[in-house]
Amino acid sequence: MDSTIGETPIWVRALQVPGWRWVPGMSAVHINWRTVEVLEVDEAKGVAKCRSARRAGYHDGQADVVLFLNQLWPDISDPVTAGHLLTLARQAYDDATITTKHYPKLEGPERKRWRVWRDGCPIAYGATEVEALVVAIEAAIDEDEMGDADDSTADP
Questions:
Q1: Is residue 35 one of the residues assigned to a domain?
Q2: Residue predicted with more confidence, 33 or 68
Q3: Percent of the chain beyond pLDDT 70?
Q4: Could you tell me if residue 97 is inside a domain?
Q5: SS (H, E, C) the chain
Q6: Cα–Cα distance, 73 to 151 (Å, whole number)
Q7: Please, are residues 81 and 27 in contact by the beta-carbon 8 Å criterion?
Q8: pLDDT by residue (tens digit) across 81-102?
Q9: Residue 3, domain member (yes or no)
Q10: 103 contacts 116 by C-beta, under 8 angstroms
Q11: Distances in Å between the alpha carbon of 17 and those of 57, 87, 117?
């Protein structure tokens, strides 16, 4: 989970996106670096019922556990997380046609291989799909804030 935007890890930025919420079926990483699947969320209590695979050496199978939401962060490789962020990007731009596309043949590890597309043009880039979507949502927020600032200086 070393993907960052600036100095802030991408999972922190994802949690700060307006509208973020934990969705059943999402994969999350617990503070002890254990990957869990979110089953149910109780926002009022700040907890989630999660399913965790037991480590080797313990009983085989899975265990359901209740974890605090503030001890979970999004698994940036999880397709459910990416799908949730795609929905939030579409809401941020009020555009249901926003899509993502992966370009695996771009050279070099520093290349941003994921693109978020709107109206046939790339609007954001990222090393992962989640990173590209978070950048797109942040850009929409910045555009909206700039629009609000322009509106406040207009003559009555």
A1: yes
A2: 68
A3: 78
A4: yes
A5: CCCEECCEEHHHHHHHCCCCCCCCCCEEEECCCCEEEEEEEECCCCEEEEEEECCECECCCEEEEEEEHHHEEECCCCHHHHHHHHHHHHHHHCCCCCEEEECCCCCCCCCCCEEEEECCEEEEEECCHHHHHHHHHHHHHHHHHHHHHHHHCCCC
A6: 36
A7: yes
A8: 999 999 999 999 999 999 999 9
A9: no
A10: no
A11: 39, 12, 19
pLDDT in tens, 64-74: 889 999 999 99
Nearest-angstrom CA–CA distance, 89 and 116? 9
| Token pair recorded at residue 55 | 């480590």
Instruction: Give the CATH number for residue 119.
Output: 2.30.30.140
Sheet holding 72-74, edge to edge: 62-68, 47-53, 35-42, 27-30, 72-74
* Tally of domains within the chain: 1
Structural domain span for residue 109: 9-152
Q: What's the rounded Cα separation, in Å, for the pair 150 and 148?
A: 5
Which residue has better confidence, 38 or 56? 38
1, part of any domain: no
